[in-house]
Design brief:
Blueprint (H helix, E strand, L loop, with lengths): L1 H22 L7 H7 L3 E3 L14 H9 L3 E8 L5 E3 L6 H4 L10 H4 L14 H8 L5 E5 L6 H12 L6 E5 L2 H10 L5 E5 L13 H5 L4 H4 L3 E5 L6 H8 L4 E7 L2 H9 L3 E4 L5
Parallel strand pairs: 1-2, 1-9, 2-4, 4-5, 5-6, 6-7, 7-8, 8-9
Antiparallel strand pairs: 2-3
Helix pairs in contact: 7-8
């Protein structure tokens, strides 16, 4: 009985070390990461959905570039394997069409207008041509129905030719693993939040992703986290113990931005201009 107790106690003693090993980020530092930290990032471009500059539109990206803000944007893979810049899985909120973007071809999508404006859903390659390295990009990979292999490969094919500064991020841990395995030189970030407060149906264990245990696979270079959830243990340890680069989304006031910047975080902002 004493031997069993010793084994159990020994196992319990190992749990904190195993947890820290699992949540640890990549330890590499690079000039690119330091460059990325110098910017505030306009969420889906410098947009105003109420005043004719839709999110993730060419107009929103041009405005962000003109103001010298970095840009956070989202990419999806279409049915015919084209990369488009759009946030939601469905076109309903932005276009009032009840279809999922991964089930449509580019020929179908390119005719769709955003929020009754003249702006349309752009191709990723056209956005890169517009930005042309003038400001850095945070590119979020939107995995649809487990297509992370196809999505990451398509994104890498285009981004490998891009001359500007960029990094990639995703909520889906296997997209981060793909970049770790195939493109180690690309700065990669794990997106997360407190999923008990904002649940999603697809993630492989809300608790694991909330506390960044999935870092054991992707070993991200930075953590992109909901700024309202930064007291979560996994994020706190990445920031304070491991000194990881941390990117906070989506900050909506100048007051919060200033406080969080002083704490050493990089900011993705929306609904105001820093």
């Amino acid at each position: 009985m004493k031997n069993v107790s010793k084994i159990l106690l020994g196992g319990l003693a190992c749990l904190p070390a195993a947890y820290l090993c699992a949540i640890a980020p990549s330890r590499r530092k690079s000039p690119l990461m330091e460059h990325l930290k110098k910017y505030d990032y306009a969420h889906r471009g410098l947009h105003d959905n109420l005043w004719g500059i839709p999110e993730n539109s060419m107009a929103a990206f041009e405005k962000a570039v003109n103001k010298n803000y970095g840009i956070e944007l989202d990419i999806h893979l279409t049915k015919d394997h084209r990369l488009v810049v759009f946030h939601d899985d469905s076109l309903w909120r932005m276009c009032h069409i009840k279809q999922n973007i991964c089930e449509m071809t580019w020929d179908e999508i390119k005719e769709v207008h955003l929020l009754n404006t003249q702006e349309t859903i752009p191709l990723f390659e056209d956005v890169l041509s517009l930005v042309a390295g003038r400001v850095p990009l945070i590119v979020e990979l939107k995995v649809d129905k487990g297509n992370y292999n196809e999505l990451c490969a398509a994104a890498d094919q285009i981004l490998s030719r891009y001359k500007g500064a960029y990094c990639i991020e995703s909520f889906h841990p296997l997209a981060i693993v793909w970049y770790r395995m195939n493109r180690k030189n690309v700065v990669r970030g794990q997106l997360s939040c407190n999923f008990s407060r904002t649940p999603h149906s697809w993630q492989p264990g809300p608790l694991a992703l909330s506390h960044l245990i999935t870092n054991i696979g992707g070993r991200p270079d930075f953590i992109a986290y909901n700024y309202e959830d930064i007291k979560n243990l996994g994020f706190f340890l990445n920031h304070k113990l491991f000194k990881a680069m941390t990117v906070l989304w989506t900050v909506s006031s100048e007051k919060d931005r200033k406080i969080l910047k002083k704490m050493g975080h990089t900011i993705i902002f929306e609904h105001f201009e820093p």
